[in-house]
């Protein structure tokens, strides 16, 4: 999430005090973190139209190893009865990020310690059963399909970026994004019903948000936007 402005995180009227599903439990656990992610760090700068091309490129460079790790670990578990339910190659972002970095001539930027910590957490999530990967897929991909589409429009308008530099937010293999999101939520629910360790996965979702927030704040500082006067 780094670029995470996920419309999924809304309170559902009339539900019981105990979440009825994995998806609902992750929503509940990350609700406050979602608000923090929108309001702090580089994500907040981008949403306010105060980003720069350099900051966007730095964001991409630091997200690249995160997506490479997530996608490698998801594919590694694609034959399993739980994680295999959510492996969707059409969501993979690594190639798109590399294309954007090449377009921006920004392939040699620094990878921050916060991105390395994020990668380490994903690798740990992918060990063993790999079930905690559900939380990272939920956080990143549903964020990209939701708030990421808002950020794409803001970047195009505020930075004058052409489509060739915004491939990260383009899902050309997905014809109907709202329908796909519904199907992906359904796959997450099905995966949740097929496993026992809900609490660990829910906490991993909180960890994923915290890692995104930490990276976003570090990127804000590294890009020089952290010293700007707040509105």
From TrEMBL:
<dbReference type="InterPro" id="IPR016084">
    <property type="entry name" value="Haem_Oase-like_multi-hlx"/>
</dbReference>
<keyword id="KW-0479">Metal-binding</keyword>
<keyword id="KW-0349">Heme</keyword>
<protein>
    <submittedName>
        <fullName>Biliverdin-producing heme oxygenase</fullName>
    </submittedName>
</protein>
<dbReference type="InterPro" id="IPR002051">
    <property type="entry name" value="Haem_Oase"/>
</dbReference>
<dbReference type="Pfam" id="PF01126">
    <property type="entry name" value="Heme_oxygenase"/>
</dbReference>
<keyword id="KW-0408">Iron</keyword>
<dbReference type="InterPro" id="IPR016053">
    <property type="entry name" value="Haem_Oase-like"/>
</dbReference>
């Amino acid at each position: 999430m780094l670029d995470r402005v996920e419309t999924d995180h809304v309170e559902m009227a009339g539900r019981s005090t105990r979440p009825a599903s994995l998806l609902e439990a992750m929503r509940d656990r990350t609700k406050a973190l979602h608000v923090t992610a929108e309001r702090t760090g580089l994500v907040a700068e981008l949403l306010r139209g105060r980003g720069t091309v350099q900051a966007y490129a730095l964001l991409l460079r630091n997200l690249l190893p995160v997506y490479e790790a997530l996608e490698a670990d998801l594919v590694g578990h694609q034959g399993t009865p739980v994680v295999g339910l959510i492996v969707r190659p059409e969501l993979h972002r690594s190639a798109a990020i590399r294309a954007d970095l090449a377009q921006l001539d920004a392939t040699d930027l620094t990878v921050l310690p916060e991105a390395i910590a994020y990668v380490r957490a994903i690798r740990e999530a992918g060990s063993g059963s790999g079930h905690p990967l559900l939380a990272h897929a939920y956080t990143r991909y549903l964020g990209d399909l939701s708030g990421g589409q808002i950020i794409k429009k803001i970047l195009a308008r505020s930075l004058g970026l052409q489509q060739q530099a915004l491939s990260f937010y383009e899902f050309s293999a997905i014809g109907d994004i709202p329908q796909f999101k519904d199907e992906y939520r359904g796959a997450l629910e099905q995966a949740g019903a097929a496993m026992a360790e809900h609490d660990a996965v829910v906490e991993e979702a909180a960890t994923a948000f915290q890692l995104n927030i930490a990276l976003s704040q570090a990127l804000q500082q590294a890009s020089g936007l952290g010293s700007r006067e707040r509105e």
